[in-house]
DNA sequence: TCTAACGTGCAG
DNA sequence: CTGCACGTTAGA
């Protein structure tokens, strides 16, 4: 109906052509006009460029000076051609410019002047991601249609007109939503719209945008990797294959308790645009779960591991499946929505969008109203069904974390028994390259029995008692899922819970926080479902300083977002199938990360460290990384290769690492030489199971002039069979050495250790803590 | 007027 | 599909 996009585009194009002709005689790239704004851009159809919110964490950051875009900037010595903001500074909630105004009344957003959330919504400017019109919802005349609010982007929706007309947005996340989509390695890259079958006739089968990406087309299944196999060899269901839904990624986060939100007097702009009456995209009913349950699909996996936290994105669910209510009923009273309702488990008012919600009904003009929006209801039913199955399993999984099943899952679904490494066939299925391959001379079959079972080796290593077989990477469609980070609320979390009667709870947030500290991560996830306020409180990064996804078989985009939201200081992704893109995306968004564990990942993934910057990283665990050898170490440790003038920072990207874990790698002196040069702060070094390490290596590390000589305090050379007694002599040169682990070094004798102790006793008293494990006594 | 950088098209 | 280039916009 309304505005023809294509028409506008053509106009813009022609105009820009003219401009280019005038302004740029040599269209080097043939770049057509980058911005397509007609002169009368306040009228409908005009695309409004968005601008920084200036409030989000990213906006408040300073330029890293190290990313791709910083390096391009003139101020960092680059040519300045790319004109992009620093990766670390890419706004997560780009806003409409100040000059934006309503096409109808020509006025700016007026939400600031209003108290009531609903009023706020009605008087805030909303930009349609389809027709680009910016209006006050209140100014719209259409009452019989609903707008679909895009809660991933401030002031963005699919306006009632477009929505009513069944249009689908050409932009998935609405205008202005960049989110580093042009970053190398970004997970957020915009998908080009599918070749427009865009006419209305296709509306029947039209799914919301995100499932329209080509990878979701049926034929894609032909090209997809085979489904993950359960140990029984049966393909496990891949809900993500079926559930390509336009997800509202953080529906939980923001909308879990809309009614509470409504009562909360909040200055959170995201509150305003999510009033109960807004129709949200119900597809997300599955959106989160389908990701989430992937992580939960292998409850048995965890049993093999002492897991601090099963990354149960339960808070991301934002639904009110009956079973979840069961789960929560003990502590809150939650009206139960229909089974595929997607939002709000509100302890007080229940799904605000549900028919019974008083808040919903009171709006005389719910311009934007929750409404089921399944273009294909048949399909959606199927999806819901499948989804529920998966969700049930997720719950089960979450429960299993504490070994306390919440619910018995009568699924006949293939179970996911522990993938014991010794099961060669499984291994073969999962990682053919490991089946026959040996690394570092140690057969994998032996390696995974390594450390703690054979020996109490190593410091702090994640020990694969059974080398878990990291599952195959999720299908590309999962990894590349457009997945955005919901803009974190700009306002600080509320200090107190709002009660039903409008009063506030007596206990302040900080007191709650003290209580939350006693909870496990899983319990926190449960708490996050209680209400909006708890959701925010429980997401406090103080509660999530350590995130452990060790052996989590599938790292999903949702999990990545969850990680970002929590901004952990320590992140363990060991033995996961994280991809390079995911890792790079992640690292770029975790500027405060200090501990990164990638043991057992593939080099393909770990190589993300070569191109990302993690300046605060102190601990890097890359033990048993497949394919990590000398050349790769060189890539990892080398300074950025960009040697253009002005590119001053030629320091190692990992220069601040003081704890480096390289167990089980096929590295030689070449790597050690680099390490001793590039890591001046290196204090703890794990080289156990490195069969190429020998006395000469130790000599290198402790040679005069190297920083490691003085910085090393703990070194692990256990099971390094080429290391001999002679190495002990080299260690005498180390000024700070406190622990030398030579256990299971065949060529190291106890006599030599005792001699070392005797000789050192004059200056530094050592003792044999265990056989060939030397430790400073004081 | 200047700087930052958004959004888009195109080459590879 | 990805990364680059750049016109143009937004804000200071």
Model description:
The protein starts with a helix and ends with a strand. The strands form 4 sheets. Strands 9-10-11-12-13-14-15-16-18-17 form a 10-stranded mixed β-sheet, with helices on one face. It is elongated. The chain is α/β, with parallel strands linked by helices. Strand 17 and strand 18 form a beta hairpin. The chain is 30% helix and 7% strand. The longest helix is centred in the middle third of the chain and has 25 residues, at 377-401. Helix 11 (284-296) runs parallel beside helix 15 and helix 27 (630-637) runs parallel beside helix 28. The structure holds a DNA duplex (12 and 12 nucleotides).
Quick structural summary:
By secondary structure, the protein is an alpha/beta fold.
Structural class: alpha/beta
Number of helices: 32
Distance between the termini: 80 Å
Report mean pLDDT, rounded to a whole number: 60
Tell me the strand percentage band: 5-15%
Biggest sheet statistics: 10 strands, mixed
Structural Rg:
28 Å
Could you give the topology of this structure?
Layout: H1 5-23, H2 57-60, H3 68-72, H4 117-123, E1 126-128, E2 134-135, E3 148-149, E4 156-158, H5 160-164, H6 220-223, H7 239-242, H8 251-255, H9 258-263, H10 269-272, H11 284-296, H12 299-303, H13 322-329, H14 358-362, H15 377-401, H16 424-430, H17 432-436, E5 438-439, E6 442-443, H18 444-447, H19 476-479, E7 496-498, E8 504-508, H20 509-516, H21 521-528, H22 532-538, E9 546-548, H23 557-566, E10 570-572, H24 580-588, E11 595-597, H25 603-606, H26 608-611, E12 619-621, H27 630-637, E13 659-661, H28 669-678, E14 684-686, H29 695-701, H30 707-711, E15 714-716, H31 726-731, E16 739-741, H32 750-760, E17 766-770, E18 773-776
Parallel strand pairs: 1-4, 9-10, 10-11, 11-12, 12-13, 13-14, 14-15, 15-16
Antiparallel strand pairs: 1-2, 3-4, 5-6, 7-8, 16-18, 17-18
The structure holds a DNA duplex (12 and 12 nucleotides).
